[in-house]
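The material for today's practical consists of a large collection of protein records. A record pairs a protein's sequence with a compact description of its fold. Instead of coordinates, the fold is spelled out as a row of discrete tokens. We will come back to this pairing of sequence and fold again and again. Here is such a record, shown just as it appears in the course material.
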Amino acid sequence: MKNSIVFLVFSLFSVVAFSQKARVKGVILDEFKNPIENVTVKADGKVTVTNENGFYIIEIPANQKVAIVFSHQSFKNSTVSVELKTNEDFELNPVLNSKIEQMGELVITSNSKKRIDGVTTIDPVIIRMIPGANAGIENIIKTLPGVYSNNELSTSYAVRGGNYDENLVYVNEIEVYRPFLIRSGQQEGLSFTNTDMVENVDFSAGGFQSKYGDKLSSVLDITYRNPKRFKAGLEASLLGGSLTAEGVSKNQKWSNITGVRYRDNSLLVNSQETETNFKPTFFDVQTLLNFNASTKWNFSFLGNISQNKYNYQPLSRQTNFGTVSEPIALLVFYEGQEKDNYLTLFGAGKAVYQYNEKNKLKFIASAYHTQEQEYYDILAQYRLGEVDANIGSETFGDVVYTRGIGSQLTHARNDLDALIANAEVKGFHELNQKSQIEWGAKFTLEDIRDRIVEWEVIDSAGFSLPNPILDYQNDQPYNPYVGPLAPYQDVRATNYTRINRFSGYVQWNYRGKIGTHSYWLNTGIRGHQWQVDADGRPKGDSQMTFSPRVQFAFKPDWDKDMMFRLSGGLYHQPPFYRELRDYDGVVQTNVKAQQSFHLVLSGDYSFKMWTRPFKLVSEAYYKNITDVNTYTIDNVRIRYRANNEATAYAYGFDARLNGEFVPGTESWFSFGYMQTEENQNNKGFIARPTDQRLKFGVLFQDYMPNIPNLKLYLNLVYNTGLPGGSPSYADPYNYQLRLNDYRRADVGFSFVFKDEKIKSSKTWLKPFNEFSLGLEIFNLFNNQNAITNTWVRDVYTKSQYGIPNYMTTRVFNLKLIARL
């Protein structure tokens, strides 16, 4: 009996002692602040490895000193000793330094996976701090080489000659979508991505792997944060605000991060030439819920509710253009208003089954539902005249002679209801230390109900202008017009469209050596089958594409840390709904997939300057595009011809130098040259709407050594002018003039009261981990940047004038950031 009691006491003591555990977790980074995958973490006989986001968690004994060893064949080992209390959660985010000497089979001196894939990784801290009229991930993307945009109110961007619809965006491996009907950047409001929830951002401007979807231009791959402890953050400015909260359960199985955002663009829109009554409200809520059921199963849910209400009432506008010797002005007085409403619901569930360290399966299901309406009736009465250029005159700057007068009445009643559902399975299998297989299969259902009613009536000097496609001669006012009266533009259609898609991919990764040099090979193929069924139209043919792709990376065994990559293949873009709808609003069911042969050659050089890390990446690329679905761009709305009648090409060179120009901060300089042209029906090559030849971008961070609390952030972009477009129904071959160059500088000044590096003993700051107050100046040099042209006709000279639509002027904004 006595022995039994002793045994029971000893057992209970052992259980209590065994239960006295603590947990260490965090994200492991390299010198360039990129997360490192497959780092081995050892402590007290236990071993774990970091995931693709550099995250790890390991359990250690409490109330004793434990050494934690971080090791990776590409980096120097790091050892940290900790002593934690029972059930304590400790966050440890070590930075591993690159190896100088060779150790083991593989030698890489930076983040291996991202560098091999040719992916640009962006620090989320930079995304949150860099100023911009539409701050966020897209604001930073636009400073990268090969990425072009001339609309600071829009989150849309074009990459290497493609258009806004040719870019893939993923959040936690789930494809996200943009509203369909938006035609103006000021209607967009909020990007889908909530920057306060972001943990990792990867961007590829071309030559991406088969595992990514079927688009022609780029991939933006975003990962939301998996919370490790309770945090909360608040951002507020004159443009709106956001609130984010995150936390984790006591047993570490459940975690959640939720963000709420509100935005009001009135401050920016009121700086434009058009005087308006503008009452927009952009609001959204996003949440990410994670559940770690076991060491093998993980479940997550990503949800989003977004509502954009856009109420717009223009009042008047004056635009001066022409030359110094012959200045001309357009005066417009408006009546009417525009009321738009965009309601979006999005939900996605994801399950990850980690069978063992070498085999993993992912199951993803998502649904996207958008209800959109675009209603407007706007009467514009204009006066086109000569401006008094005499500086000493009392009427200097006023219109003193009228060349022509006229009016324009535009009307729209557009409604769209779209449901997109996806079901997907992915697999990852490590065959051995040198090779892996990845595969995936996906089914997509698109059900879209769309009614488009748009018409436009134009009158000049009392003479109604008919539709230009009607075969009637109009020689007013010298001869009477006897043809039928018709709207200048009239689009009416009702479409009920269903599209079923099946897609899949398989790719193989291999690493090997040639002598002492290392190489990596990724080769794969995508398949995509779809069929369009539109009520009232013949059912489309079942179409199929195959897209083989390959990447080859080579790292020579040199003293200098250099890597070379060659990637490319066939890329297809099966038509989405907007690409099926022609100029008359009618769905064409047999539009083919656009096809691009894409080749990218790049060099990557990592080095140290001033004892700090730097990287220079340069890329040359070429695209040959067939079955091109030509289009026109009106602000950010794309209208396709839906006929695959053209061929096109694009080629160029990009370079980016990034590093710590100022100690402790990352900055970069980027340059791009690009030319893209298309040939419609063998009429000859002309510039495509996104043919933006030169691009310079600067993202710079600085602080004052004597006042480290005061920080500066600069976002500077220079792009040469885009083609200015053409009037509706006109032949684009007759309109090849370009807009002026796009020049913009946004600067932010921030006084940091407290953050990770700057400590404070003030009582009121104790609850905060970060607290700062900033001043932002958008369009610092007050440049006039044009987005498109408005075409106005002078009835007497029969000339059409392209009147630039200028974007925002200089704007000041205050910004408060507080984080717990």
